[in-house]
Each structure stands twice: as C-alpha cells, then as structure tokens.
Amino acid sequence: MKQIAFIGLGVMGGPMARHLTAAGHQLTVYNRTLSKAEHWAAQHGGKVAQSPAEAAKGADFVISCVGNDDDVTNVILGNEGAFSSMQKQAVYIDHSTISARLARQLAVEAKSKDIFCIDAPVSGGQAGAEAGKLSIMCGGNVDALNLATPIMNAYASRIVHVGKAGAGQTAKMVNQICIAGTLQGLSEGLRFAQKSDLDLDKVFDAISGGAAQSWQMDNRWKSMARDEFDFGFAVDWMRKDLGLALDEARANGATIPLAAMVDQFYAEVQAMGGNRQDTSALVRRILKK
Ligand code: NAP
C-alpha cells in the first residue's frame, strides 16, 4: 500500500484514481474545482487537499492528469505546486499530454530535487480509463519506470518504455498524427458509402475484417453514422495535441502535411460548435447529400 497524491480528477484522472484506491492505495486528491475532489472522495474515500503542494507532502507517488503545458507548470512547478513539497526519492508520474520540451524540463527539475520522474501520456480514452485498460507510453530512466510500473498497472493494459525523458510525449504525438489521418479517411469513407446508398452495416461488417480495420472504425463508425458526438476525446484536446506535434515537427524536420490539414479541419469543427465533441465529429464538415 502506497501513499499517492492524485492531481486532476477529470474524465481521465477520475477513473484512474478510482482504480488506485481499488488496488488498496491511500489517496490524497487535488482538483482545481474543489467540489469535484470532494465529490470524488465522498464516493471513493481518501483525503482532499487544498493545493497540489498539500497533496504531495509525504506521498510516495505524485500523479498528475491535467490539461496542457500551462496547467502542468502550475500544479507541479508553481508556488503551491507539488515539487515544492515532495520528499526525496518519491516518484512523479505525469499522464497529461504536454510538450516534450516541458517533459524534459520537469525531468531536470525533478533530478535537482532527487525525485524520480516519468512522462507517461496515455491512449485509450475515457473508456480505457474506466475499464483500467489504458496504453501508456513512457519517457524517463529505467529506475523511475520500474518504480512507477506496479502503480500504473492498476489502470493500464500496456506500459511501454519508449526512451529518455520526453520520449513518451513524442510517442503520443505519433499516436495523434496516426489518429488524425485515420479519422479523416474513415469520415470520407463513411460519407462516400452514404452517398452511394450502400447498406452501412454490410459495408463495415465486410471491410472491418480486412486491411482497413482500425480502432476508430470498430468503435466509431456507428456513432458517426448516427451523428452522435457528445462523448469521448474532445476536439479542443485534439487541436492541442496536433499543435504539439506540429511544433515538434518544426523542430525535428519531419513533414506532417495531413496532420496539419486535419488540424485545420478541426478548426472548422470548432467553428461549428464542436469544441467538446468527440474527435469523430470530423465527419460533420463533410456534407451528407
Ligand atoms: P478534463 O476532463 O478536462 O480534466 C482535466 C482536469 O485537470 C480537471 O480536473 C481540471 O480541473 C484539472 N486542471 C486543468 N487545469 C488545471 C490547473 N491549471 N490547475 C489545476 N487543475 C487543473 O481532461 P481529461 O479528458 O481528463 O484529459 C486530461 C489529460 O489527458 C489531457 O492532457 C488530455 O489531452 C489527456 N488525454 C485525454 C484523453 C481523453 O479521452 N479524454 C485521452 C488521452 C489523453 P477542473 O475540474 O477545475 O476543470
């Protein structure tokens, strides 16, 4: 049983923290909107802290799952941030999707405080978090990963050590680049099938057993066909992630024109009011008839 501070009880963090209590760990939770933390603790037990620093004090592990670079900087490096109170030899795990540059900076700051640190963005969405079956791509040193793995096993079905600090975040960018292209292809295929007046059940039954199969096809074609998008991974988050990938591509010289184009398509979906809709809302910008 470990003392764990969990920061950020959103769509992903809430269920991940729940799996940790179910695994028998002692949790102290912090959330910017305090009422959410109080509600979580009333349901699952554990203590509620008033600041990240208070949550992190005396913890063996500090885990964050907040929004973007600014949010992680705030809750970890800020005046009331977790690093101001963490004990030496404790482990910091960040599950937020942020820039590789900030992940590397966190690793440097952690080392200067004798804290183990890994960047550990996740894939698998809300359903993966609820089911405890996330895929986690990790950056950092082996010692940190070995300490973090038994903890992350509570909500992961796959944990891969990709490389040094920042490599987990860079791998997550690869993930998002692949998803952007896949979803645009699926959107075009679906609209093409609709315009051709094909029986969609038969089409997707046939092609999902072949080379076009994907997680997006298996899990999203039906809801896309029904125009249902109020769930899942938000368009706003996807634009943040594609922005991170485009910045990184500018730095490493990679060309990702399809990801750049789909990012602009998502800007159109935002203009249609789809900010919090699932990324499969990409199909909305292609006319049906
Ligand atoms: P979310 O539901 O919006 O939750 C974010 C949580 O972080 C909220 O509890 C929020 O507090 C807290 N937070 C944000 N900024 C903060 C700040 N400056 N200080 C303190 N707390 C702050 O987001 P999510 O969907 O769980 O996503 C979290 C991270 O996981 C993001 O980086 C996202 O890209 C990544 N991710 C998400 C998914 C997905 O399917 N949702 C999948 C893979 C990865 P409040 O309650 O006050 O807003």
UniProtKB/TrEMBL annotation:
Keywords: NAD, Oxidoreductase
Domain 6-phosphogluconate dehydrogenase NADP-binding: 3-163
GO biological process: organic acid catabolic process
Signal peptide region: none
InterPro entries, alphabetized: 3-OH-isobutyrate_DH-rel_CS, 6-PGluconate_DH-like_C_sf, 6PGD_dom2, 6PGDH_NADP-bd, HIBADH-like_NADP-bd, HIBADH-related, NAD(P)-bd_dom_sf
Pfam family, one: NAD_binding_2
Catalytic residues, chain numbering: 172
Gene3D superfamilies linked to this entry: N-(1-d-carboxylethyl)-l-norvaline Dehydrogenase, domain 2, NAD(P)-binding Rossmann-like Domain
Highest taxon of the lineage: Bacteria
Positions of the 3-hydroxyisobutyrate dehydrogenase-like NAD-binding domain: 166-285
PROSITE patterns per the UniProt record, alphabetical: 3_HYDROXYISOBUT_DH
One GO MF term: NAD binding
The family this protein is said to belong to: Belongs to the HIBADH-related family.
Protein name according to UniProt: Oxidoreductase
Organism whose genome encodes this protein: Sphingorhabdus lutea
